[in-house]
Amino acid sequence: MSNKNDSIILELKNVTKRFGNLVAVNDVSLSLEQGKLATFLGPSGCGKTTLLRAISGFSEPDEGEIVLDGQAITGIPPNDRDTAMVFQNYALFPHMTVAQNIGFGLRVRKKPKREIDAEIERLLDLVQMEGLGNRKPHELSGGQQQRVALARALSLHPKILLLDEPLSNLDANLRISMREEVRKLQRRLELTIVFVTHDQEEAMSISDVLVVMDHGIVKQIGAPTEVYEYPIDEFVANFIGHVNFFAGEVVDILGNEMTFQISQGKLKLEMPPFQVSVGDKLKAVVRPESIAVVRAEAELTDMDNVLTGRVEQAMYIGSVMRFTITVGDQTVYVDESDPQYRGIFAEGQEVKLILKKRIHMLTN
Ligand SMILES: Nc1ncnc2c1ncn2[C@@H]1O[C@H](COP(=O)(O)OP(=O)(O)OP(=O)(O)O)[C@@H](O)[C@H]1O
Ligand SMILES: [Mg+2]
Q: Whose CA is nearest to atom 20 of ligand 1?
């Protein structure tokens, strides 16, 4: 997503799709650069599949235009678009072998048999399924079926590959290794991919660009770190990872620093990158890993942004310890990646929390 028009492969211009009274996709505009992996991310029913189907031609938008590689493709049937789609349930043909599945599109396009056979071999190799061409889909694991679906989609050399929750049927470990494979293949072949998921961790880890959707609307477009660190509103902040909000008021401004009054105390913060005045009500967005916890007895005189609280719960979640801490009238989540080093706090223990000076602020 940049201004360099020559590298833009896909453009959506004010795309709207309705089902009766329901606006499934609402005036969506975006552009996608060639060779990038963009992910549509959002809760169930937000319009991800509908948008993908509009790009692939399986359904037509009611309004707006879709431009692929400089050509308006709205109205062109799916088979005549340079797109390939892998569906949510990856839909292999059960009666066909792996090789027949992969070669299907090429046979439909009446390619010579020798060419098709060579292409099947190349694709089997590409997705690490050498020697399995004669199997039927039911003789494959979920991950292998997924690879076949991917190979079949790649057989037509699409300008853009559309993957609708391609990993959702796989167990957790396979899901992670398959997403790494998809990403490697995408980078190696410089494929342009639109990937759909409602799994925020998957989206964060695989994408060049995140497109966060809600109720048919695009909420925010950006690199994963940008969306994580600077979510545009509470919905995006909540949807991408865990977050604490501190609502408050600007009560003083001095140079590049403001005093932000929250119900639990006063914070001294860097000025946000937008105009603020005394009296403005804002919301501070603080990720659980951006707060430090120390013992209540720790000497922190002269230190700003220290709040006091009481540990309600301490819980291991994967690689971090998550503390649930009551601070005044609010529950605050703090993640500690190395509790052995920093100290494990018991439930019921009084603690101090230290917040940074640079905090992302929301105006709404
Ligand atoms: N053919 C249809 N007829 C009527 N309503 C539809 C149709 N297809 C989708 N919808 C509705 O449009 C909205 C968007 O659906 P869509 O399938 O795009 O969501 P999604 O983001 O892909 O969700 P999920 O994550 O569950 O797959 C939903 O409210 C859905 O019920
Ligand atoms: Mg869907």
A: 45
Select from 26, 39, 41, 49 the residue to mutate for testing ligand 1; criterion: most ligand atoms less than 8 Å from CB: 49
Minimum CA distance residue for ligand 1 atom 24:
44
Q: Which atom of ligand 1 is nearest to the CA of 46?
A: 21
Nearest to 347 by CA among 320, 321, 317: 321
Options 3.40.190.10, 3.40.50.1010, 3.30.70.20, 3.40.50.300; CATH for 5-239 is 3.40.50.300
341 - beta bridge partners?
none
CA distance 102 to 124: 8
**CA–CA separation, 206 vs 182, rounded Å?**
8
Q: Over the stretch 174-232, which tens digit does the pLDDT of each residue have?
A: 888 888 989 998 999 999 999 999 899 999 999 999 999 999 999 999 999 999 999 99
Segment (H or E) for 312 = strand 306-317
Q: For the chain, what are the domain ranges?
A: 5-239, 244-362
Per-residue pLDDT tens over the stretch 320-333? 889 999 999 999 99
- Between the CA of 50 and the centroid of ligand 1 the distance, in Å, is 6
Q: Which CATH architecture has domain 244-362?
A: Beta Barrel (2.40)
How many angstroms separate the alpha carbon of residue 306 from the centre of ligand 1? Answer: 46
pTM score, two decimals?
0.89
